[in-house]
Each structure stands twice: as C-alpha cells, then as structure tokens.
Specification:
26% of the residues lie in helices and 30% in strands. By secondary structure, the chain is an alpha/beta fold.
C-alpha cells in the first residue's frame, strides 16, 4: 500500500464517521445490499440523491447513494455492485455483520425530488439501484414512476422489488435502455427524469429525451462510471452533460 493510500485511510478513520454493519443481503450474484447504523447519522441529514464516501480498505474510498427508510434514524442501506476485482468488490465480499466501517459525508451528488411531481422517470444500470430506491422513496405517494434499470442476466434478481422495469443488457451498455425509452409514452405534464449509470449510455439517453421535447431543467443527471475510464466521465460531466 502506498503512502498516499495509508494517509487517505488514516484520514477517513480520523475525520469520518463510524458505522456498524447490521445486515448483508445478496440481491443477486454481484449486487449486495449492506445495512449500516451510526449514532452520528440522522435521516434528515441524507437528502435523496446525496452520496457518502465509504472507506473500503487500503486507503481506497468509494461513493454510494444511501437509501434511508422512513423512521429509520441512524440506519442506511448502500447497494454495492461487485462486478470485478476492485477494492470495493473485495471489501464487500469480505464484509461480515458487526464490522465497523468509516465514511465521509453525506454530500451533494444529484438533486432529488423538490416536492410533488406530475410524474418521475428513472433510467440507469446496476450502479444506480440505490439512487433509484432513494428517489422513488422520496416521491409523494401516488406519483407515477416510469423508466427502467438495465442489468446483466445474472443480476436481474436484484430488481425483483423495483418499481422500474427490468431490462437485460445486450452487447452494448445502454442499448436496452434506449429501446425501452423509444417505446415509452411519457405521462402528461412537466415531470422530472433522473439519468445515471454508465456515462456514454447516459449521454445517449439525454439526447433522446431532448429530441422528444424535454428541456434541460427536467433532466437530473449523474453518470457513476464510464467504460472509457474516470477521466472520460469527468470530462462529460464538465462539458456536454452540464449544458
């Protein structure tokens, strides 16, 4: 482990908040829900769409959108997509109930619902399951919700309880979401669309929605990753996705 990783790990433990692992649920072979509790955490401090940075060992930090249930003060869920052999994947596979973890935040990531909406739409992939749950959970009862989450076939079970449609990924990330959007009749009124997941797929969905007459103010966008790497995602966020 490098010196910078050692320092980041020490800073996370010293300056961050501590939480205890209360529950670990395998939603599918590669999607895991982790329930955390912390005496220093109030549900009111976590607006829907906020993020926390979890220390996943060896000085590595990873961002997640916490899901907070109504009345569950001090408790939050994070949904981890363990799709490779990175630090977060190794961390969640080794995690056990009773472990202590350090986190920083919450902080702003993507703006959630501001109040009643005529409808809400969400598109994303496995990495956006937590965000989708947080958004849907914050909507007033009875709000129409449309959209879809895209997964690999082996992880479709992770969407069993989702209010969004589940679509299976083809050869290219985002194709199944684009096909779903083409067939979707958006409800009347000025609703809000949340787009997340892989950056290039988000960019394609954004353009398709604009082509259908939606305005930029109706779109709340946060790509979580890119097949072309972190620099590509950051560049898109700074340029075209901001316009």
């Amino acid at each position: 482990m490098s010196l910078s990783q050692t320092l980041r790990g020490a800073a996370a433990r010293a300056l961050g908040k501590s939480a205890r692992v209360e529950q670990i649920v395998a939603m599918s072979p590669r999607v895991v829900r982790v329930r955390l509790s912390s005496a220093r955490l109030a549900a009111s401090e976590i607006p829907p769409g906020a993020k926390i940075k979890l220390h996943v060992g060896h000085g590595e930090m990873r961002s997640y959108t916490p899901v907070v249930s109504e009345g569950a003060d001090g408790t939050m869920d994070v949904v981890v997509y363990a799709h490779a052999d990175g630090a977060a994947c190794r961390w969640v596979r080794q995690l056990t109930v009773g472990d202590d973890v350090a986190f920083i935040g919450p902080s702003t990531s993507v703006r959630g619902p501001d109040g009643p909406l005529p409808w809400a739409c969400i598109y994303g992939d496995e990495t956006a399951i937590g965000l989708a749950e947080a958004i849907v959970g914050a909507l007033p009862a009875g709000t129409p919700v449309v959209g879809a989450l895209e997964t690999a076939a082996e992880d479709a079970a992770a969407l069993t309880d989702s209010r969004l449609d589940a679509v299976l990924r083809g050869q290219t990330h985002g194709d199944a979401l684009m096909d779903h959007l083409k067939q979707l009749d958006l409800p009347p009124g000025d609703g809000v669309v949340w787009l997340s997941g892989e950056a290039s797929a988000v960019l394609r969905l954004r353009q398709a929605l604009l082509d259908r007459g939606l305005v930029r103010e109706q779109l709340r966008i946060k790509p979580y990753w890119s097949l072309k790497g972190k620099a590509h995602r950051k560049k898109l966020e700074r340029t075209v996705l901001r316009s």
